[in-house]
Amino acid sequence: MIPGRENRVGINVIMLGPPGAGKGTQASRFAAARGLIHISTGDILRDGIQAQLPIAMIAKAIMDRGALVDDETIIAIVRERLMRADSHRGFVLDGFPRTVAQACALDAIMDERGYGPLIVVNLVVPEPELVRRLAGRRICSKCGTNAVQATASLACGQCGGVLVQRVDDTKAVVRDRLGVYRRSTKPLVDYYRERPTFRIVNGAQSQDRVANELEILVDDVIVSATASSLETLQY
Questions:
Q1: Higher-confidence residue: 134 or 37?
Q2: Known catalytic membership, residue 23
Q3: Of 29, 137, 138, 199, catalytic
Q4: Where are the domains of the chain?
Q5: How sure is the predictor about 33, in pLDDT bands with cuts at 50, 70 and 90?
Q6: Beta partners for 73?
Q7: Element holding 124 (H helix, E strand)
Q8: What's the chain's average pLDDT?
Q9: Fewest Cβ atoms nearer than 10 Å: which of 144, 175, 213, 214?
């Protein structure tokens, strides 16, 4: 980490990666280390519903019907969160964007905010490792707490309930989900790939090694962005 660097250039990070890549864990860890807000679309949707924000209640009504929340509604929810004052120093986005349409909308939001470049991090993990991780996950049958890489014989650390495999974490279902992810997100990765702020991180390493690599790559982007800004000022 470069002392004071983040005060001159906003740190705005998108974490991309397939299910099981660890993007939620790394997003939370990086945000805490840099004093940024971690924005998970699932969390802001739940918070918005609890606060009864109009746009969040629209999304709730859609989900209650068993339908998928459309791009327009998700974009509006994320925009509302990014426009709050606490996000102006920077943020780490987890779970958004998921489509090229959402990515285009995020670019427009960033232009409106005007706070630093958008750093795109793609966590890459081989499929066999993803299957191993996801198939090894357990969830408490009582309180719903996730217990990664636990065994069914262990009890939940939160409430003591029995840990069971999630219905969507069998190997066959996991492989199907990964196939859907590849097909749906390839256009999104292609959308960002040629940007100078796009970086690939090896997510198959230990959590500490992934976190260290992420720190280094983000600092590299910040240095490059700062240098580019200084060059522009000279002309």
A1: 37
A2: yes
A3: 137
A4: 5-126+172-233
A5: very high
A6: none
A7: strand 118-124
A8: 83
A9: 144
Q: How far is it, in rounded angstroms, from Cα 221 to Cα 55?
A: 34
The residue annotated as part of the active site, out of 98, 113, 132, 175, is 98
The single-letter DSSP state of residue 20 is: T
Q: What strands, in cross-sheet order, belong to the sheet with 198-202?
A: 37-40, 90-94, 11-16, 118-124, 198-202
Q: Is 177 tagged catalytic?
A: yes
Catalytic residue among 29, 133, 177, 199: 177
* Angstrom distance (rounded) from CA 81 to CA 34: 19
CATH classification number, 5-126+172-233, choose in 1.10.8.100, 3.30.200.100, 3.90.78.10, 3.40.50.300: 3.40.50.300
Catalytic residue among 23, 34, 133, 138: 23
Q: What is the pTM of this model?
A: 0.78
210-220 tens-digit pLDDT: 999 999 999 99
166 included as an active-site residue = yes
- For 54-102, the pLDDT digits (tens) are 888 888 888 788 677 888 888 998 998 998 888 888 999 998 998 999 9
